[in-house]
Amino acid sequence: MKQIFQPYGPIATAIVMTKRSNNFCTGAGFVRFVRSEDAQRAIDGIRNAQITLENGKGPLEVKLADRQKPSDDQPK
User: Fold this and answer.
1) pTM to 2 decimals?
2) Mean pLDDT by 10-residue block, N- to C-terminus, for the chain (76 residues)?
3) Contact 13, 31 (CB under 8 A)
């Protein structure tokens, strides 16, 4: 995953989501860039590149992560 996103700027963290039962990739992940403008450049660049995933399950989809709203039982 880092190989795909690194050309767009310094990466702070990259996480691949896996299933707990077998540790296989779920097909989702998160990349956090050091600079927010690099994240937008990556989104624009990867969408235009039409990168196909190795497993052949369609093109790579990129977007900004949805922010979770705090629930009533979480401190605000």
Assistant:
1) 0.72
2) 91 91 85 94 87 70 79 59
3) yes
